[in-house]
Amino acid sequence: MLLYFLIACIPPWIGWSILVFGPIPQNSWLSSAIFLTGESVSLAGLVATFTVQGRKGVSRPLKEAGHVNVPIRWWLYALLVPRIWFVSAGIVYLEVGFDVSCVPVARTTSNWA
After folding, report:
1. Residues sharing a CB contact under 8 Å with residue 48, sequence separation 6 or more, in sequence order
2. By the number of CB atoms within 10 A of the CB, which of 37, 90, 98, 99 ranks highest?
3. What angle do CA 91, 35, 101 make, to 5 degrees?
4. Residue 113's pLDDT is what?
5. For 12-21, how does the pLDDT look when each residue is reduced to its tens digit (9 = 90+)?
């Protein structure tokens, strides 16, 4: 459990703290990479599963993830709907006049001193 916590929580806390309080500019490629430290939760789940159940514990859910017995329309729904929403949101942003190429990360403006 401690290993899961260390992998799942510490990287996002450090990464997002650097984004908010650190010297990295918002439009830097590095800020996008640091934002993705939140994906460490998935990695932590795989590491915890491997620690408890070994290789079989990790391979079984990964194999079963693609073997869902549902009609093809549900696969298409799962694959296409998020992309449709993404494109629709982009169109709305463009129509409203927002610049979609660089949406800033929220930063605090308060003075801590």
Report:
1. 1, 3, 4, 7
2. 37
3. 30
4. 46
5. 888 778 877 8
